[in-house]
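Lesson 9: reading folded outputs for more than one chain in a single document. The general rule is that every protein is listed as its sequence immediately followed by its structure tokens, and records are never interleaved. Here is the first one.
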Amino acid sequence: MSDCKSHKTSNLLSRSQTQEEQAFTALYEEYWDYVFEQAFIRCRQYDIAENITQDIFVALWDQMEELRIENIRGYLYTAVKNRVLNWFEKERRYVPIAELLIEYQAATDSSDTPLLDKELVAVAEALINSLGTKQQVIYRMRYEQDLDTAEIAKKLNMNRKTVQNQLSLALAQLRASLTLLLVLTKFF
């Protein structure tokens, strides 16, 4: 008797799980374009908008049992807005290297500037060379060959997320070093 009850419970669970998957697939297919469009309008970067869209649907899938959403379009709109704001906040923490170089140029505005520029290029190259081998290759492909992370991942036969993580780590290391260099030049 317990085998029969166990079989019925298992059958019910698989049926409800299948229904849940079908419902999610329908939701995904119906709203993916909308979510992507809303993300792209806000961040203007295809790969970032795509990542945000995927993250929203993954989170939605993970929380599907707990969530009780009455207005799915409104929920997705708010999710996009929050994810994009989080992305902007994260990006704001990093000062672009070009801005650091402009500040460096302003800080060293003197007759020694050409010499200091050459030294800065040498320091920047040394910093890039100090990166791990994989980070160095990814960094050069991104900023010297102007490839996006999807192209780099394909060429290196790597996961795109791994490429993005390695690039983020490399940029963080370079920014920290260049920021220290900028601070030192202002004091000396």
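And here is the second record, again sequence then tokens.
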Amino acid sequence: MAPMESAPGSDPPGEDRDPGAPGRQDPLERALHAARALILADLEASDVARADIVSMVEESVTHRRWWVGQWPEGVAFVDGLVAQDVQDALLERYGRWPVCPVCVGSDLHALQVEPELGEDPHWICGKTSTVVARVGRLGTRL
């Protein structure tokens, strides 16, 4: 007798689903993957997406996975928090990132993530309060 096959897109009863399969990730994993992609896009737009810097993104994502496990309501804030984590790690090792494109001159400064703990984070110039781009959209216009 041939084994019973399940319909496409359905799982046989009693079998565990693969949480990594497309469309089957839990909300936390989707949020973490999205945050990773946004920050990588900003690093790429700034031409600093080297392997050691990408590792900083991975470290932040790992930390935020634990953090959201402690405070599940914080999943909505992951994009901005990963951006801030990477920004802080870069400052410690290499210097300011991303450098403000609004202000010109010798007083180089980094953009800030606003809101610091909130949804829909943006990169802003803290000196002029100018919104530069959404997190994940550096190098593009609003």
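What the second record shows: Residues 7 and 122 are 44 Å apart (CA to CA).
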